[in-house]
Amino acid sequence: MDGICGVRLTRYYRASPSEVWAALTDTASIARWLAPVRNVDLVPGGGFELQLGGGVSLTASVRSVEIERLLELDWAVPGEEPSVVRFELRPDGNGTVLALDHRLIDARLGMRAMGIWEGHLTRLDALLGEGETR
Amino acid sequence: MNALEALAEPTRRRIVELLAERERSAGEIASHFRASRPGISRHLRVLREHGLVRAREEGQRRLYSLDPVPLRELDEWLQRYREFWDNRLDALDTEIRRRRAP
């Protein structure tokens, strides 16, 4: 595995990949599940703008898109180093598994990928926790 | 350079992994690398300066171990993003159901 600092979450939805994809990418839907949005155009070179709280707007630019399967976005807040958000769908029985990866390139400090990944941190945490009880 | 940037360097990251297993002496750490012993000592100094690693003397040896505080801070920082997406993915479930409703 490459050194990646970020978060990865997976969810199972009781819906087909096409239903999940529609909710994930439809403009009105994005506004409800993610944040107020405008200029949605999910093709390479396109993207959308999100209005986050406090008057901050975020620009998402499409890096890669495969209908009902994959959406990878450059995730940029002004003044911060962009990070990458990736949604991946796969059918699973009667539903769909969504894997979300947010590869964080330290947005606070404008640094490059720093190479600690979540599982590794969890392992470190467990080890460090044991150390403390000695 | 801050603590997070100190960890961006692959050798230092590997040292942190070795120390996550257990406390080790500088010589023991150096034996895992092709880099020179002074090179490893420099990396250890950087890690100490950033509060990632601490050292204690035992007889002739200096033993290095992880200082958990900065790693906790890093994990807390990641936790904010985890919570953000956790909430958003719940909202996506609600949205999927809403689109289905007649």
Would you write up a description of this structure?
The complex is a heterodimer of chains A (134) and B (102). Chain A is an alpha+beta fold and 134 residues long. Chain A has 3 helices and 7 strands, in the order E-H-H-E-E-E-E-E-E-H. Chain A has a 7-stranded antiparallel beta sheet, covered by helices on one side. In chain A, strand 3 (47-51) and strand 4 form a beta hairpin. In chain A, helix 1 packs across helix 2 (27-33). Chain A is globular and about 45 Å long. Mean pLDDT of chain A is 78; it is low at 107-134. By secondary structure, chain B is an alpha+beta fold. Helix content of chain B is 66%, strand content 14%. Chain B has helices spanning 3-6, 10-21, 26-30, 37-49, 68-100, and strands at residues 24-25, 53-58, 61-66. In chain B, strands 1-3-2 form a 3-stranded antiparallel beta sheet. The longest helix of chain B is centred in the C-terminal third of the chain and has 33 residues, at 68-100. In chain B, 25% of the residues are buried. The A-B interface holds A 3, 5-7, 9, 11, 13, 15, 19-20, 22-24, 26, 29, 32-34, 98, 100, 102, 104, 106, 108-109, 111-116, 118, 120-121, 123-125, 127-128, 131-132 and B 2, 4-5, 7-8, 10, 13, 16-17, 20-21, 65-66, 68, 71-72, 74-75, 77-78, 81-82, 85-86, 88-89, 91-96, 98-100.
